[in-house]
Amino acid sequence: MGLDISIFKPTKKVNESDYEDIDDCTHLFMIDFGLNQQDTFEPGYYEGNRLDSFRAGSYSGYNGWRKQLAEMIGIKLDNQEDFLSMVREHKIREVNGENGLPFIKLIFFSDCESYLGPKTCEELYRDFMSNEYLLNEIQDTYFKSRYQEWKEAFKTAYENNGVVIFS
């Protein structure tokens, strides 16, 4: 088992009873972390278009990659309290009208069934673009290739008013 990522463009909300009868339909299942990562799409069943997908690796592999992403921007995540401290700092910055911490909406997000909305995808794409220069310091080619894959996924989602689904 592992983590699969889909980029999906919801076009119409449908009733749960119609879900089985529609060829390209998905269930957007929400897990709320207090950062409004789902944006404008309500949880539920949607008809739409699957734009792309990729395998993010095993759950432990993805979590290792995510930890390395945090370390790339100078954040050590050794325990749950580190995560919570990072979220508090991000929210304080936003309240003060400052930029929040880059990648936080990906780093502090479940690795199981849920989705990131188009506004969040745009924010994350911009984080990936503006921090790409930090890859020069990293030797790990696997990390770099995953970085590019995630960047493109977020770009595709936000350009198409879509979502990135974790399953």
Main sheet properties:
5 strands, antiparallel
For the residues shown, what is the average pLDDT? 85
Strand percentage lies at 15-25%
Count of helix runs: 5
Approximate helicity band: 25-40%
Task: List how many beta strands DSSP finds.
Answer: 5
Rg result: 16 Å
Strand order of the largest sheet: 2-3-1-5-4
Ends distance:
10 Å
Principal-axis shape equals: globular
Instruction: Tell me the series of helices and strands, N- to C-terminal.
Output: EEEHHHEHHE
* Tally of domains: 1
Return residue spans where pLDDT drops below 50 for at least 5 consecutive residues: none
What structural keywords apply?
167 residues, alpha+beta, 40% helix, 22% strand
Topology, please?
Layout: E1 3-14, E2 25-28, E3 44-57, H1 59-72, H2 80-95, H3 104-107, E4 114-116, H4 118-130, H5 141-159, E5 163-166
Antiparallel strand pairs: 1-3, 1-5, 2-3, 4-5
Helix pairs in contact: 4-5
Overview of this protein structure:
There is one protein chain. With 167 residues, the chain is an alpha+beta fold. The protein has helices at residues 59-72, 80-95, 104-107, 118-130, 141-159, and strands at 3-14, 25-28, 44-57, 114-116, 163-166. The chain has one domain. The chain is built from five helices and five strands, in the order βββαααβααβ. Strands 2-3-1-5-4 form a five-stranded antiparallel sheet, sandwiched between helices. It is globular, with a radius of gyration of 16 Å. The termini are close together. The mean pLDDT is 85.
